[in-house]
Amino acid sequence: KRGSTAYQGIVAGAFTFAPFRRKGFGKRLLAFLIGELLTAYPAVKLWVDDDNIGAISLYRSLGFRQIGTCYTGYFAN
User: Fold this and answer.
1) Which DSSP string corresponds to 49-67?
2) pTM for this structure?
């Protein structure tokens, strides 16, 4: 079934350690990963917190567009 995630590459939880941010490492790595995923899948989606403005800006610079939202909960004990 084409609407299932079996036909989509998924990126979730990507991050860069603080000393290496804003130096282009994350963008280069994601561009490579996206290229690799697109050789195996017709589409790539990613998951990002909606308040992570820096990451959203990076993803938009790589050609991503927002297609929806969902709620993610974080719990600790």
Assistant:
1) -TT-HHHHHHHHHTT----
2) 0.75
Terminal CA-CA length for the chain: 39
What ranges make up the beta strands (E) of the chain? 9-12, 44-47
Question: Could you count the other beta carbons within 10 Å of the beta carbon of residue 46?
Answer: 18
Structure confidence at residue 32 (pLDDT): 96
Long-range CB contacts for residues 68-71, cutoff 8 Å, separation at least 24:
none
Report the amino acid identity of residue 58: L
Residue 69 corresponds to which tokens in the numbers above? 């939202």
Write out residues in the chain with pLDDT < 50, as ranges: none
